[in-house]
Amino acid sequence: MNVFMNSSVSICNNLFIEKIGDSLMIINPKSGFGPIVIMGIALKLFLLCQQNKFIVRNLLPLLNISKEEMRMMLLKFCSAGIFKVDGIDLLSEKKIKPKRTAIWLHITNSCNLRCSYCYVNKSNGGAMSWKIAKEILDKSIASCMKHNYERLLIKFSGGEPILRFSFLKRIVNYVRSYKNKVPLKFQFLLLTNGTLINHEVIKFLRKERFKVAISMDGINQYNDRTRIFSNGLGSFNLIEKGINKLQDASISPMVHAVISDYNVNGLLEFTKFCIEKKLRFSFTPVRSESDDWTRRNHVFCEILKECYDYMEDVSLNLKGVQIEHSFENLNLRRVVNRPCAIGWNALITDHRGNLVLCQTEIGKNSLCRIENVSDVLSAVQSQNQINLNTFSKECAECLWSGICGGGCPLFKRQIYNNLTVKSPYCETYKLAIKRLLRLEAIKLLKKGGGENA
Amino acid sequence: MRKLEELGIFASSSNQLENSMECNECNECIEECECDCYECLPECIGF
Q: In the CATH hierarchy, which top-level class contains the domain A8-93?
């Protein structure tokens, strides 16, 4: 970008601005840049430009800064989609080709838990055969090579994948046999309920540098209302022990909590638990129907406000504490037209070797059988039976739709039998985005030394 | 010349425009990946 002394500077549209202490947090949600926080000279520059279109030359004496400093500030403002120079903003429409994908390997239906909302039918105890696993891996790797991908993440799920630990190890060893044969980097992720973590499992996870995600819906009774064993007993104590064992072995799991009517009142306690244990944690609103969506959103938002107030308080006042939290798939630093990779860049298989659109479609709808396709990535994209890019009219006009992607399309289809509507959780997403922005702004201030927020 | 922070700007050091549009291979990519893979996002549990 060229900035000349006679260039004109003006403010872009679609900005969200919020005061944080003496600073302003600003984001252009259509920029993919994330928030920036300004104070001092930068704040003065922004406020001047907010009032009028300015010529750069005229701004210099008002701010008492050098040309180089002005250029550097303008570049940052323009990159973030906040300023336009000579009427040109720097936002790019460029579509970036993916270089990595993930395959969701549903290796078993079996589970030692009977969570009330689980989408997996455990009654038939289905388990993936080695023949199917090998075919899925071979074809996925071949497809990644064909499309010039650089990295493949292999996610083990179920059911409870640790119940098939020997099978899991066999898969990892097989994937490792591809090392030096293909220019593809492999990563592994274990999605587990956390109750079966033992020394042998940990040793293997460490050796193979697994990422670990644990499902947990709260602490004590809040988790135990939904995440129960077949005898009705709760799983919290065992999950906590599993987390402790992982942390003792320097494995930092991501803890995923599904927010439902059953555990929402325990969410603040859960937040405190995660922060105290230095856990990365995420919230996902439950994919179940509601008689009263207005009320559910209201309740979720009220509790979430308390959680985010607490996170802000800790983030502002406790030195050395870094909160690592996410809300569903919301990402402040990118612009999306869908909330996840399904039907585009996600390979998901059931235990029988059926490719499915999303793991929640396992046992319901399959796209095709792995044995009938040669290029799995193309198969997923070509068999994308519903237009997942469809925003509702309201979404298209919404400031935040590039961050939420319109919400889960399959959930909208489930609830409304319609994709061109806004998500039932629209209000919850809006609140979460704004609070995530504030958290990010505080993090930036702390990192940059501007801690007088 | 003063740094951006001294001028009062606090922002992420990376973005789609300032980077070379490559994933930075950090392995902890909740937010860092800048490509269009969608797989750097946290797992959607999808319940």
A: alpha beta
